[in-house]
Amino acid sequence: MRTRHALVLATVLSVSMLACRDDGPTGLAGTPKDGRVFIDNFIASDFQAFSGSKLDAVSLDNTVKFRGTASLKVTIPAPGSYSGGAFVASAPRDLSAYNALTFYARSSVAATLNVAGIGNDNTGTSLYTSERNNIALTTTWQKYTIPIPLASKLTSERGLFFFAEGPEGASGYDLWLDDIQYDSVTTITNPRPTMTASAITTEIGATQQLSGLNVTYAVGGVDQSQSAGAAYFNFVSSAPAVASVNASGLVTVLTAGTTNVTATLGSTAAVGTVALTAVAAPTVAAPVPTRLAADVISLFSNTYTNRTVDTWSASWDQADVTDVTIAGNATKRYANLVFAGVEFTTAPVNATTMTHFHIDAYVNSNSNFRVKLVNFGANGTFGGGDDSEHEVVLNATSSPAITAGAWNSIDLPLSAFAGMTGRQAVAQMILVGSSPITYIDNVYFYRVATPTAPTTAAPTPTYAAGDVISLFSNAYTNRTVDTWRTGWSDATLTDEQVAGNDVKKYTSLNFVGVETVASQINATTMTHFRMDIWTPDAIVAGVDFRVKLVDFGANAAFGGGDDVEHELTFSASSTPAVTAGSWITLDIPLSQFTGLTTRANLAQYIFVGTGALNTLFVDNVLLHR
Q: Are 482 and 515 in contact (CB under 8 A)?
């Protein structure tokens, strides 16, 4: 099992009983250029156990040793804890004459040492940390080398050596260290520094600490990589007026623009560039909503009373959210946004009477801002088997479109979330952005009152009369229709006028049969079936309109053995889409009625409303070519 290690510690334990003193060959212990850390005992240094580690893990062992009189025995505890700490010099040392720290180690079992390194003085302010990870240990003594990334930096260093290790598998083990010292190693060659390449979008006035700095060396001909503190490097901003970089790799953003930050280790250029884009934060608040409170279910807005939201950044997301105030208005600011999970599972929203979802978003990129809504279904439980969801993608060419560097007031019909097949327990919203910094405000569901009847007439057909067989239209001479509501229908029919135009109105619609049995229609030369429909009912998942055509065949008799028929379905996601409150022209190629293999004796036309589609206005029912 690998374990954590602490470079910044809340508490420090100095194991003073092990802090023996020894006069080395360079003079008194602790002389500035002394490179010894532990050779038979501590050389003017203390071992300070890391916070949370096994405090008594380190002891002197006079039996197991590489050479001399003693080694350091490290007891690695069982799962649940770890051993680790720093060897801190009692006075700063000048280590600039050396190029590496070396040590010998062995273990009671084959193991992997989590981390060993230099430059950690256990103060939380260490500048020159460098560490190797996942160091293979064996049951025999082996020599290990940690190159110094840039020795000229270590003229006054107290952090001599540190390590951290946890149990291997289900149990602990013993680890021995000996002859820990700084040295000049002639087999270290070919340093290859790197900095993790990245593209960062941030705001004027922000700071950004550069990280992901590593160096790979050939040590005895074998490549070996280790991390290195930013202070070892020299950084350059290609546009210092946009952002400056200090000696510790802290970037300060000064003005809007772009810059590339590069690094060198001594005279060697590091591979990898940080491309930074600096943008201005919004200074103007999002537009104030004007919808009536009675028509709104709000999650976040100064204008309305908000429902309970459990979190604006769930534990499983990749985003950092803060509450900010812009021009006196409360706003959510997302940084490092990959995707943000907003959860209101404690109080899911019943949006069955709502028609739209609204959010104001301020983004710095107009490509692919995504909004996903998740409904937990009738049981109100995530993963209960009836969850449904849908994601809408918005960008510079979508409708609505997204504009970078401005507030975008986004109004989405809930019918656009076609995959969310229910709305009774909407409990999650997931935001995905190509803009790492995104502001949001005025997040709410709302309803738009749909007229109960059309106020304008259906579009007037313009086909030549010679190309039309009309059943019902003021634009043409109509053929004889036996009935617009058969006795076996489940609907109510009234004849009405809209803007002076005749229409058929069906209410309590389940299904209705229209018949031309007495005067069957020969449509063999026609190519399309057309009708115009209008409904006040919300077209959501599970709500659709269906039309069926029935041909009685050559014998012109129902049930004569040669009847054929076909039904087509139109919904919010069909082409054309059915929406509430608008005339929809269904101009359907007869070829789409694939089951209608004959057309010489059309005798029935059946209209069906499913789900909550109860009211339907119909006009311009005809065939044409």
A: yes
Instruction: Report the Cα–Cα distance between both ends of the chain, in Å, rounded.
Output: 75
Count CB atoms within 10 A of the CB of residue 62. 11
pLDDT in tens, 577-594: 999 999 999 999 999 999
Token code pair at residue 468: 């039309």
Q: Report the relative pairing of strands 157-165 and 13-14 from DSSP bridges.
A: unpaired
The neighbour count for residue 182, using CB atoms within 10 Å, is 27
**Among all chains, which residue has been given the structure tokens 């379905």?**
569
- Distance between alpha carbon 583 and the CA centroid of its chain, in Å? 39
Cβ atoms within 10 A of the Cβ of 11, count?
10
| C-alpha 341: how far from chain center | 8
Give Rg (Cα) of the chain: 38
- Is residue 315 within 8 Å of 339, Cβ to Cβ? no
Burial 572-589 (b: 16+ CB within 10 A, else e): beeeeebbbbebbebebe
Q: Beta strand 426-432 with 369-375: parallel, antiparallel or unpaired? A: antiparallel
* Cis previous bond, 576, omega within 30: yes
Reply yes or no on whether the pLDDT at 28 is more than 70. Answer: no
- Alpha-carbon distance 380 to 552, whole Å? 48
* Interatomic CA distance for residues 171 and 471, integer angstroms: 85
Which of 546, 548, 551, 557 is closest to 523 using CA atoms? 551
Is residue 624 within 8 Å of residue 469, measured between CB atoms? Answer: yes
State the Cα–Cα distance between residues 389 and 423, nearest whole angstrom.
10
CB 260 within 8 A of CB 238: yes
- Which are the contacts of 399, defined by CB distance < 8 A and separation ≥ 6? none
Give the amino acid at 553.
G
Sheet holding 213-219, edge to edge: 13-14, 45-49, 83-93, 157-165, 111-118, 130-137, 222-228, 213-219, 188-195
This prediction's pTM? 0.61
Instruction: Return the number of other C-beta atoms located less than 10 Å from residue 330's C-beta.
Output: 14
In this structure, which amino acid lies at residue 189?
Answer: T
The tally of CA atoms less than 13 A away on the side-chain side of residue 177 is 27
Q: Which tokens sit at 196?
A: 């993790």
Which residue bears the tokens 């289900």? 170
DSSP state of 171: B
Cβ-Cβ contacts under 8 Å for 570 (sequence gap 6 or more): 544, 545, 546, 547, 576, 577, 578, 584, 586
Who contacts 227 (Cβ-Cβ below 8 Å, separation ≥6)? 117, 129, 130, 131, 133, 213, 214
Q: Residue 555: what residue type? A: N
What's the confidence (pLDDT) of residue 556?
A: 95
Neighbours of 191 (CB within 10 A): 15
Amino acid making up residue 23: D
Instruction: Give the C-alpha separation, 120 to 130, whole Å.
Output: 8
Convert the pLDDT of each residue in 87-146 to its tens digit.
Answer: 999 999 999 999 999 999 999 999 999 999 999 999 999 999 999 999 999 999 999 999
